[in-house]
Design a protein that fits this description.
mainly beta; three-stranded antiparallel β-sheet
């Protein structure tokens, strides 16, 4: 999450948003050969993180404060469309004075995806 915050604060993005991917030990996420941008999770959970606003504090030598990261938790065999990233199905987490929320893994969905059927 610090990587995402610094990318935004340092102006390393073109649209003020930064994405990151984290994978639990023993896991991987791989993208398709066809180049359409579909990632598939294998072995262990993976997390796609979006910072879509300026962090409250991301200064060298000071503890990070950044509220409202969007996180998509992906179980093994799940897919994620990196080309057409979803706008729902995520939960929110924060880092305050260098301390992340107690439960970074899972939580109630802040923006549920509509169900079909």
């Amino acid at each position: 999450m610090a990587f995402v915050a610094r990318a935004i604060a340092d102006g390393a993005t073109t649209d003020g948003r930064a994405w990151g991917v984290g994978v639990d030990d023993g896991g991987s996420i791989h993208t398709d050969r066809s180049g359409i941008g579909i990632g598939t999770v294998a072995g262990a959970d993976a997390y796609v993180v979006l910072g879509d606003h300026e962090p409250e504090r991301a200064e060298r030598g000071k503890p990070l404060t950044f509220s409202g990261y969007k996180i998509w938790e992906l179980a093994p065999s799940a897919t994620f469309d990196f080309r057409n990233r979803p706008t729902c199905g995520y939960y929110l987490r924060s880092v305050t004075d260098g301390t992340p929320d107690a439960d970074l893994h899972g939580g109630s969905t802040a923006a549920p995806c509509p169900t079909t059927g």
